[in-house]
Every structure is written in structure tokens, then in C-alpha cells.
């Protein structure tokens, strides 16, 4: 019978593999490493929290300054494009809240209020930092006037009846139409014809008449009558009319520019 002895301090090997001795010199236990790293991790975490808190407070503070204080509030209102409409009338209609924070100014509401003025066609309202509201207006351009039987009103290039006047304006013709309005086809035809007339001829027009969009005619200073017809070929008709007016006559018909007549 054979007896196997094993040396003290060694364990039997498994499957013939000798155990490997490992030295613990120079290494700290895992718990010691965690205790050493924890204070550093805590300081980093605390620092991140402070940075996040300061960031939130900064955003909230800026938001409060921009939206709820007068630091960046309205200080002035500038109006551009006004000629016949008084600037002070535009400012009064705009009713821009003084010292209100710029971000809280309702520019659309301001534009709507200014657009109610009779002589204003379009309005654009914008913010000019740090403290100015800019109002840019486009005024209506009158091309004639309309007598309703009770009062006289200016008519613009779009056929809008927009402003009461005390007397007939110099250099503008009277619209002798059954009705005047931007949605009326006859009105649109008349305003298109007037817009096509040469600059030197337009002030000579005294009256414009039309029963339909295709029957536009007007009377010039001195009594000459021009039969224009519809609002087609306006440029060509204007050139033909310029040549016809050099001839003597009472009625100048350019409704068919290929066959104009003078009578």
C-alpha cells in the first residue's frame, strides 16, 4: 500500500495543473480603494449639482429680466413711410405700451390698430433692439374721387373708398360709376386704365365713366372724350391715343387700337 504525502502549505493540484502563487504585496484591498475614491466622487457630483443649479438660476433670471422688467422695455416708437397721414396720428393709433418689455409687445395687434387709419394701405411692425418699436407704413395712392351724393371720398389704386374730403381734389378725376369698391369689376377696370395712362395725360382727366368693365371712357380738360373700352392692351392704347390727340376732334376712340377713330 502506497501512501501519498503532501507538503505543508500546498493544495493538491487539479488535473495536473500546478497552483500559481500570487503576491499581495503593493495592492490594497478593494474596500480600501473604494474608501479612497469616494470623497473625490462626492466632490465631483456636488460640483456638477452646483453648476446645474447656477445654470437654471441664470436662465430664470434672464427670462425674468427679458419678459417682466423694463430694463429692455420700449423707449421709443419710430414711424417711416408716412407722408399725408400725420406721424402723431399713427403713434396714437398704435398705442404702443411705454416701458413694456420688448418681448411682450404684441406687434400684430399694433399693426391691426394702425391699419384702421383711412390713409394706410399696409403696415409692418418690428422690434429694433434694444428698445425701439419700428412702424413702417405704406399709404394709399389716390387715383380719383367718388361722390356718394352725401360726401366726397378718395379712391385708391385698388378701388378702395377710404377717406372723406371736403371738396374735389385738384388733378384727380371723378368716378362716375354706379358703385365703387375693390371687389367691383368695373372699378378694377377703371383703376387699371388710369394706371396705364402716361404721366402727362393723367392730370388732364376730369371724369371717368363706365357701365361695365368693357365700356370705360373718360373726359379730358377742354371737353375731349376718350372711349377706351376694356382694360386690355392698355399700353398699346395709350400710345395710339397719344398720336390721336394731335388731331382735331371731339371723340377719340381707341377701344380697338388696330382701328382707332377721331370724330
From TrEMBL:
It holds the Pfam family POTRA_1. Residues 28-39 have a biased composition (Basic and acidic residues). Residues 1-39 are annotated as: Disordered. Residues 72-140 form the POTRA domain. InterPro entries: Cell_div_FtsQ/DivIB_C (IPR005548), FtsQ (IPR026579), FtsQ_DivIB (IPR050487), POTRA (IPR034746), POTRA_FtsQ_type (IPR013685). Keywords: Cell cycle, Cell division, Cell membrane, Membrane, Transmembrane, Transmembrane helix. One of its GO terms (biological process) is cell division. The chain crosses the membrane at residues 50-74. It is a single-pass type II membrane protein. The keyword Magnesium does not apply. It is found in: Cell membrane; Membrane. HAMAP family: FtsQ_subfam. Essential cell division protein. PANTHER family: CELL DIVISION PROTEIN DIVIB, CELL DIVISION PROTEIN FTSQ. Belongs to the FtsQ/DivIB family. FtsQ subfamily. This is Cell division protein FtsQ.
Amino acid at each position: 500500500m502506497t501512501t501519498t504525502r503532501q507538503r505543508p502549505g500546498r493544495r493538491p493540484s487539479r488535473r495536473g495543473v500546478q497552483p500559481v502563487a500570487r503576491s499581495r504585496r503593493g495592492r490594497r484591498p478593494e474596500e480600501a480603494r473604494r474608501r479612497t475614491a469616494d470623497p473625490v466622487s462626492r466632490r465631483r457630483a456636488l460640483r456638477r449639482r452646483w453648476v446645474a443649479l447656477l445654470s437654471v438660476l441664470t436662465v430664470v433670471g434672464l427670462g425674468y429680466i427679458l419678459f417682466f422688467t423694463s430694463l429692455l422695455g420700449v423707449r421709443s416708437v419710430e414711424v417711416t413711410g408716412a407722408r399725408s397721414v400725420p406721424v402723431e396720428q399713427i403713434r396714437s393709433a398704435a398705442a404702443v405700451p411705454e416701458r413694456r418689455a420688448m418681448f411682450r409687445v404684441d406687434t400684430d395687434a399694433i399693426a391691426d390698430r394702425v391699419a384702421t387709419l383711412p390713409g394706410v394701405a399696409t403696415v409692418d411692425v418690428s422690434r429694433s433692439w434694444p428698445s425701439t418699436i419700428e412702424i413702417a407704413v405704406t399709404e394709399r395712392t389716390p387715383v380719383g374721387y367718388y361722390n356718394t351724393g352725401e360726401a366726397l371720398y378718395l379712391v385708391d389704386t385698388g378701388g378702395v373708398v377710404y377717406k372723406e374730403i371736403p371738396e374735389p381734389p385738384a388733378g384727380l378725376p371723378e368716378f362716375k360709376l354706379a358703385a365703387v369698391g375693390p371687389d367691383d369689376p368695373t372699378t378694377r377696370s377703371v383703376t387699371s386704365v388710369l394706371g396705364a395712362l402716361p404721366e402727362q395725360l393723367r392730370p388732364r382727366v376730369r371724369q371717368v365713366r363706365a357701365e361695365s368693365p368693357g365700356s370705360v371712357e373718360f373726359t379730358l380738360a377742354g371737353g375731349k372724350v376718350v372711349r377706351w373700352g376694356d382694360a386690355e392692351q392698355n399700353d398699346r392704347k395709350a400710345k395710339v391715343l397719344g398720336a390721336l390727340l394731335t388731331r382735331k376732334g371731339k371723340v377719340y376712340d381707341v377701344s380697338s387700337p388696330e382701328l382707332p377713330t377721331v370724330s
